[in-house]
Design a protein that fits this description.
This protein is α+β, with helices and mostly antiparallel strands. It has five helices and four strands, in the order H-H-E-E-E-H-E-H-H. The protein has one domain: Endonuclease, Chain A (3-Layer(aba) Sandwich), CATH 3.40.960. Helices cover about 45% and strands about 20% of the residues.
Length: about 120
Amino acid sequence: MNLPKNNNLKSNAQNLRKSMTKEERHLWHDFLKTYTMQFNRQKVIGNYIVDFYCDKAKLVIEIDGSQHYEDNEIIYDKDRTEYLNSLGLKVLRFTNIDINKNFNGVCETIDMVVRERLH
């Protein structure tokens, strides 16, 4: 499936790959990079850049820092999730706290959802 993408965001995505948060780096280097299904970092989908994307499972993973709990960000994230869902994508959201305090649980959840999405 060819997803829509805004090519104007390509350089932003490349910059975000170079400047991932500590939590994004942890999830990438300690789980997703070597996971059995391929994930991409900072993938442009439509007018958005998602943190991680698995094409085979049609799965988006977002790592939310504290800014995601401000009123305008909550609305933005809701609209973004609805858009991604309209493309047939599942969106998993984890907080920085989830990554820092329950990393194994996050990895298990991702693995479970990937398996569900493939069957």
